[in-house]
Amino acid sequence: MDPATDSVLIFDSFELDLARGVARVDGVDLDLRPKSFAVLGYLAGNAGRLASKQDLHEAVWGNVAVSDDSLVQCIRELRLKLRDDDHSIIKTVSRRGYRLDARPVPPPHDHGSQNASRQMSAPRGIAARLAALPRRSLVAGLSVMAFASLASAPPIAAGMRHPLAELAHWFVPEDHGIVPEQDVERITALAAEKQLPLPAYRVRAPASDVPDNVRRFLGVWVSDQGWINSHRQFMMIVTNVDRDGVATGYLVNGPAMPHSRVPGPGFSGGFTGYVLDDVLRYDGNTGLHSASITADGRIEFKLVFREGGTSVVFLEPLWTLAHPGRVARSQT
Predict the structure, then answer these.
(1) For 270-318, how does the pLDDT look when each residue is reduced to its tens digit (9 = 90+)?
(2) Fold of the domain spanning 3-100
(3) Alpha-carbon span 239 to 251, nearest angstrom
(4) What SS3 class is residue 160?
(5) In CATH, what number does 181-331 get?
(6) Which residue ranges of the chain lie beneath pLDDT 70?
(7) What is the C-alpha separation between 309 and 300, in angstroms, rounded?
(8) CA–CA separation, 136 and 125 (whole Å)
């Protein structure tokens, strides 16, 4: 038995690496809360079979008494991250539990075949998306990709980076949802100025039944001075909120400054948080994140590190439903 092989479960739609504690879709690691990963691990270990609510509670929370809502929130996060909008991967068995309807890929017999299977699992979903495109769009997109590869050579890249981005955007324009194009341009320009690696985002209009204390977090928030003490720039993009208080989006950090606790270049990652008592909370790999709106309409964002210590940053509403078109104070 090879522990490295046995610790990886491969399905048509995702991959579960039990040793590293991560799940992947199309080869990209998902940012899951520990309990959500544990729920997915149990479902994957019982793929195709009913996992009762009681079994899931015992496997994930043990003797700790929690409500069914804790399990529901984990399932909601998993469906979001696995892009399971139609509940075709994780099925609800009414009043009984859940069933993972994902076909497992047989484990390989050696490392070589394992690597091949893992490399093929990511392109499988991409190939399906490409096959659905019109042939003209597919040819155009592949041409852009080939041109991008050529333009990445150092002598060419310096002069072609901006035209290439324009060409790619012309073929595949991004959909930013309810954010007006002029505001998208301002957000993009300010992110570039602050060296924030802006992800591809889409802000969705909230349903009419979303409470105001949840709705007001929706939008794009950016730091003025950056994290207190380190001055590393930071942006929070809340793309979707629902009536249960679930908020999803992206956290974006600029490049490290001399006093930053986390070194390295700028980076961004998705998050799923929950609004409770007017505070948006997210339990991430680094620690517990919390965001609360101040009396003057800013966000006080705190990160309590797992190894100890707290960092704080104040965010301005760059674009929100309450303040459309507003810019950070340093830009006014």
Answers:
(1) 888 899 889 999 887 788 899 999 999 999 999 998 888 899 999 999 9
(2) Arc Repressor Mutant, subunit A (1.10.10)
(3) 11
(4) helix
(5) 2.40.128
(6) 1-6, 106-174, 323-332
(7) 16
(8) 20
